[in-house]
User: Which sequence fits this backbone?
């Protein structure tokens, strides 16, 4: 049996800049790209409907079926905690797929946060970030839940008070851009660096003031 769906917002984000520094050569993230960025949350959002199930099943209704990050997030959290509960999840998709606004990552983060409460898991934010990182580099940034600086693969976040532009104009393209494909392409089209960027230095200074 399941309860009725409760609906939650999953906000999108902007990367006010995104610098690719190279690939990591050690640790669990070996091979992944080092990044510098600033995440800015926006009010455009997907909506996630979630209800608990007492039979332990996880059922998802939305694009991509069981491969959707919503379903994968619920299964990852259940596998990590061995909760006996399950859930129904419905997705109302408003953020463009592949548009760089982090919709899938935000959806996953929302599922993790809500199920942590619905399943009475009492995991702290760091524990949830560890689960989220296995789903995608941007998921922990949404779990952090505030405008933030991002480094390495995007998940070392610190509260950021600068770059607080109040409004943006978003224009949706008719095609999407894959970061993975871009990173595999000719590196002459990507800004590579071995040092902290001026934008990141300014952001860190704004944070420390």
Assistant:
């Amino acid at each position: 049996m399941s309860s009725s769906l409760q609906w939650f917002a999953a906000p999108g984000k902007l990367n006010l800049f995104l610098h690719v520094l190279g690939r990591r050569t050690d640790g669990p993230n070996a091979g992944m790209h080092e990044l510098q960025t600033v995440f800015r949350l926006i009010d455009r959002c997907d909506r996630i409907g979630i209800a608990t199930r007492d039979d332990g099943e996880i059922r998802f209704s939305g694009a991509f079926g069981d491969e959707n990050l919503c379903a994968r997030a619920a299964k990852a959290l259940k596998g990590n905690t061995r909760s006996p509960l399950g859930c129904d999840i419905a997705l109302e998709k408003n953020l463009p797929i592949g548009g760089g606004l982090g919709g899938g990552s935000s959806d996953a983060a929302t599922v993790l946060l809500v199920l942590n409460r619905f399943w009475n898991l009492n995991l702290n934010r760091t524990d949830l970030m560890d689960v989220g990182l296995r789903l995608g580099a941007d998921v922990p940034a949404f779990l952090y839940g505030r405008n933030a600086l991002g480094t390495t693969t995007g998940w070392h976040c610190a509260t950021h008070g600068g770059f607080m532009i109040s409004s943006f104009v978003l224009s949706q393209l008719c095609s999407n851009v894959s970061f993975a494909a871009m990173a595999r392409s000719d590196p002459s089209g990507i800004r590579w660096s071995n040092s902290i960027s001026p934008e990141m230095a300014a952001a860190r200074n704004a944070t420390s003031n």
Q: What stands out?
A: The first helix runs from residue 69 to 81. Confidence is low (pLDDT under 50) at residues 188-196.
